Amino acid sequence: MNLDLRRALRLSFPSSIALVGAGGKTTTLYQLAREYQSEYPLVILTTSTHLGREQVRAADFHLIHHGELKQTWEQIRARQGRLCLTAEWDSQTQRWQGLDSETLQSLAQIAQENDVPLIIEADGARRRPLKAPADHEPALPPFCDSVIVVAGLAALGKPLTEEWVHRPQRFAELSGCPIAETITSEAILRVLSHPLGGRKGIPTTAKSYVLLTQAETPEAQATAKRMSSFLLRDFNAVVVAAKGQTLPSTAEPGNLPCSDDDFLLPYRLLAVHETIAGVVLAAGASSRFGKPKPLLIWRGETLVHRAARLALEAGLQPVIVVCGAEGNAVAEAVADLPVAVVQNPDWSGGQSTSIKAALHTLGEKSGGAIFLLVDQPFISLPLLQALLENHAQSLAPVIAPLVGDRRTNPVLFDRLTFPDLLRLEGDVGGRAIFGRYPPQWLIWQDERLPFDLDTPDDYRKLLTLDEDSN
Q1: Which residue did the predictor score with more confidence, 393 or 325?
Q2: d(Cα 98, Cα 104) in Å, to the nearest integer?
Q3: For position 322, which CATH number holds?
Q4: Among residues 222, 245, 265, which one ends one of the domains?
Q5: pTM of the full predicted structure?
Q6: Which residues of 268-288 are buried (b: 16+ CB within 10 A; e: fewer)?
């Protein structure tokens, strides 16, 4: 995929970003710094714990803070590039010490006032792929608005020992995996989702993300995809990455560490998994048809029930059924499904009112929405899964099926398009914004997909098709 990490995590205004976990925090630190440099002349890198000599030497500048922060800031603001700010060198640990909490708080405020991104390494892992936090960890500042929890999949299938996991005993307690036993994806999931594991110390106001690194093999990538559906219950997004091979053109050879470390090599982002909503549009009066289309029976269930069920089976969350003209009957038809029924009192104003009614119910965690029309019976589970996979690999603003030369539904809209969808008026749908967001077409081979029910003859034809196939 051709995305940078900042876009994948939807990081906008210069943020205070904290990195915790294991398996690539420093790589993440410098990758984000390079990406921010394309827009901001100064990026501050620091730590609330400690940094090694190589980690600091990779920055464009290194300043040691002592005394008043105002004096240090005068030195900072005169620089451009990746500036690493630490406290004094600790000769016992052979590391640069982190800033204290009061200094970090003041630094964050000054950085925000001056539109300077601040990226904080807030955890240590001794270069292991995985870790579980001790009682005093992580050192997460309470002001952070974004927290990235890093975990390396290189430990999958390896024994739970100090070689692969920092603090293995603690990891065993949180995961239920005994010491020396094989580390499974389930064990990693339990630690990442545990309030004393990956979620520990994350400010309630912060957005949180999981970065699954070291997904070098197809097997690891498939495992990461399965893990993502569980992690999205607790995190805003899950990014899957493998190590890249070359430095971007913005990297300067003089900034490479004097060792064989490769933490400056950027990640190749493989997928970005987010919660995608399913919106079933079932509010119309079906005046041309003569009876409520959402309540037509096909293959033993109503069309609205079928659409909602497929959305759930595809993993769309939440699934919203927008009803209007036949509100009570439609709600009753899906009463056995875990869906949200939204009554649209303005349904007579056209499809745009139902789109807006659905979007108003979505929270910030939704990365997009797939809109399903109940009168399109040949929507299938594989099609919905293909739309999701396409979006995870591209984050394209609009993704729509193309059957031959016919564009059709359902369409996935990234949350980037939501403000424009909310401005729609009248009996128009999402196609009204295709001019601004040219769709990424998903080639689909099922010629039945564009078939929809406009008249009773269409319904009779649908039933006949089933009889013929039987």
Answers
A1: 393
A2: 9
A3: 3.90.550.10
A4: 265
A5: 0.91
A6: ebbbbbbbbbbbbbbbbebee
